[in-house]
Amino acid sequence: MSNLELDPQEIRCGADAGADSEVLMGREVPLGGPRAMSVSRTLPGRHRRMIGAWCFVDAYGPERAAMRVPPHPHTGLQTVSWLLAGEVLHRDSLGTLQQVRPGQLNLMTAGRGISHSEESPDTVLHGVQLWVALPGSDRHVGPGFEHHPVLPVLTGSGFAATVVMGSLGGVSSPATAYTPLVGAEIAVDGACEVPLTRGFEHGLLLLDGEIERLERGPLVYLAPGREGLRLSGRGRVLLIGGEPFGEEIVMWWNFVGRSHDEIAAFRKEWMEGTAGFGPSVFGAVVGFDGAPLPAPTLPGTRLKPRGRVR
Fold first, then answer.
1. Distance between CA 100 and CA 89 in Å, rounded?
2. Is residue 303 part of a domain?
3. What is the pLDDT of residues 217-238, one digit of tens each?
4. What range(s) does the Pirin C-terminal domain occupy (predicted)?
């Protein structure tokens, strides 16, 4: 999924964990399409920019809409597409053509550069789109795509957790991850305690139903030090987390880099294809009926590498 803002702000990522917990309010961002729908963006937030390596969380629906996101580029991150309702067709410059449906994972690794598009029919859509920042040691890996139609489930008294990324309670996803992290959809039925990794920071987002002390919309941040999470009610929640990301990064539009000049070079390559890697390091998306998405204009001031919190 693309950040379709015409004037994207510099996203300043990373620093110390801070308080034990806090509520991260989302902001409404138009996604675009023939019947444009809005997403609630809780990461990056005004204060906290990352949870582990997770650097972007958009939640949308349930809402009837036709998604149409033209071809656009990514660098230095992974995109994680997770649906609760509807279906989305993914195309990318590797030649991938793949539907994602509820309970299935589409994982795209941008590495040094990839482009993709996303479309859906006019249907009820409900889901989340997440990005994971790649560490410096792996941010130039070759681009890749994985589709996982079946994922492992951790069960316990009162809950069943589908492990989308990383590991939870000794159950590990087959999806490729480059830092210690977790991403899971937890179905809660009654009172339960979900195991956590003590050294991880975590985020919790209510997806549907009613869970005590959670509201639809905000993302609840939990600082490292917890070994379990008590939940009560009936519904589904998204759990993300990981080791605090120690690197400073520059995140602007659909790029994750390490300096202003690097981001400017990514933008130039997308707009002009002049980086010397053939026609374009981002490749071409074949089969999408429409023009690629142009990059916004860079801000007048230089982008600066930042840490996890402002």
1. 6
2. no
3. 999 999 999 999 999 999 999 9
4. 189-274
Distance CA 85, CA 271 (A): 34
Position 301 in a domain: no
The rounded distance, in Å, linking the Cα atoms of 178 and 134 is: 7
For the chain, residues with pLDDT lower than 50 are: 9-19, 33-34, 275-278
pTM of the model: 0.91
Instruction: Count the residues in the chain.
Output: 310
Residues with Cβ within 8 Å of 264's Cβ and at least 6 positions away in sequence, in order, are 298
Strand partners, 40: 28, 59
- Domain range spanning residue 114? 14-242
- Longest Cα–Cα distance of the chain, Å, equals 57
**pLDDT per residue as tens digits for the range 38-81:** 899 999 988 899 999 999 999 999 999 989 999 999 999 999 99
**Structure tokens that stand for 52 in this block:** 């582990």
- Total of domains in the chain: 1
Q: What is the CATH number of the domain that holds 210?
A: 2.60.120.10
Domain assignment present for residue 284? The answer is no
Strands (E) across 86-169 are located at 88-92, 97-100, 105-109, 114-119, 123-133, 144-148, 153-156, 159-168
In 3D space, the residue among 24, 73, 61 whose CA is nearest the CA of residue 44 turns out to be 24
Whether 54 maps to a domain, the answer reads: yes
